[in-house]
Amino acid sequence: MPELPEVETVRRGLAPSMEGQVITRADVNRPDLRWPFPENMAARLTGAKVTALRRRSKYILVDLDTGETLIIHLGMSGRMTVSGDPLGQFHHDHPAPAKHDHVVFHMGNGARVTFNDARRFGAMDLGDTAQLGDHWLIKPIGPEPLGNDFNETYLANTLSTRNTPIKTALLDQHVVAGLGNIYVCEVLYRARINPTRKAKDLSKKRVASLVPIIRDVLSEAIAAGGSSLKDYRQADGELGYFQHGFQAYDRENDPCQTPECGGTIVRITQSGRSTFYCPKCQR
DNA sequence: ATGTGGCCCTGCGAGC
DNA sequence: TGCTCGCAGGGCCACA
């Protein structure tokens, strides 16, 4: 589920129920996710007002009026769902606690925000809001792909020294923030670049072409996610949207959709992850 | 430094 | 039905 567009969709879905609201109670149902929760997390959240919900890469940042920010990563299987919508537009009841509901935030407006994560690759930490950029999880991350720091010059310089396949390089969060396995496949498909090609061997022109494609793919996915916010609000928390738009990801043996290509999507493994691409038109 | 592989964990679908 | 296997949207960490 969660690459940058999904995390942004979750952030937008949570904002109306959390921003400006006090966390009246936090149920922390286990000691850890990927790492132990920060010391006294429940106590540090209780009574704090949420001043803003932000996103950096695949992290949701919950700014609090205590001077701390709750840093949340959804890992592979993390979900955050809202119940008890105070406006009464969706449903009034809170669902019974489900398996893997690890943290529940009770908001002053009656809403509950439940963090569920079966695989527990997710994470939470608290950091000083003023120094969040120096937080060990945030500091090493590369530029936001939808921001001004991500541009042709930056990407060309960064990739020019990378001896690794372009697929692996774009997946590296130090290079660019927020891309995951799905969107890297989609980006390279749209750019018609073979994912096995070494990053440093790509021409400047081809690298430059990646910048707007990355922006477009992510923007389109965010727009599609935004249109499904109503679904998101429903109890099951299912998102279902942009996967209908995947051209390469999970399309092994499907015909390539590039006009006149006639190729077939294949699946290979790169650094332990599946890569889907068309060997005929991606060069 | 850069690059690669292992590993954390649960759930699900395919195949037998 | 029920088992086993492979795979899953991520990323830290140890090691070459």
Automatic annotation (TrEMBL):
Query: What positions does the entry give for DNA binding?
Result: 100, 119, 162
Cofactor(s) of this protein: Zn(2+)
UniProt-listed GO biological process terms: base-excision repair
InterPro entries hit by this protein:
DNA_glyclase_Znf_dom_DNA_BS, FPG_cat, FPG_Glyclase, FPG_N, H2TH_FPG, Ribosomal_uS13-like_H2TH, Znf_DNA_glyclase/AP_lyase, Znf_FPG/IleRS
Q: Which reaction does it catalyse?
A: 2'-deoxyribonucleotide-(2'-deoxyribose 5'-phosphate)-2'-deoxyribonucleotide-DNA = a 3'-end 2'-deoxyribonucleotide-(2,3-dehydro-2,3-deoxyribose 5'-phosphate)-DNA + a 5'-end 5'-phospho-2'-deoxyribonucleoside-DNA + H(+); Hydrolysis of DNA containing ring-opened 7-methylguanine residues, releasing 2,6-diamino-4-hydroxy-5-(N-methyl)formamidopyrimidine
Q: Which CDD domains match?
A: EcFpg-like_N
EC number per UniProt: 3.2.2.23, 4.2.99.18
- GO molecular function list: 8-oxo-7,8-dihydroguanine DNA N-glycosylase activity; class I DNA-(apurinic or apyrimidinic site) endonuclease activity; damaged DNA binding; zinc ion binding
Family annotation (Pfam families): Fapy_DNA_glyco (PF01149), H2TH (PF06831), zf-FPG_IleRS (PF06827)
UniProt keyword list: DNA damage, DNA repair, DNA-binding, Glycosidase, Hydrolase, Lyase, Metal-binding, Multifunctional enzyme, Zinc, Zinc-finger
Q: Could you tell me what the cofactor note in this record states?
A: Binds 1 zinc ion per subunit.
Per the record's keyword annotation, is DNA-binding included, yes or no?
yes
Annotated SMART domains: Fapy_DNA_glyco, H2TH
Active site residues per record: 2-3, 58, 273
Q: Which family does it belong to?
A: Belongs to the FPG family.
Q: How does it assemble?
A: Monomer.
What name does this protein carry?
Formamidopyrimidine-DNA glycosylase
Q: Which organism is it from?
A: Octadecabacter temperatus
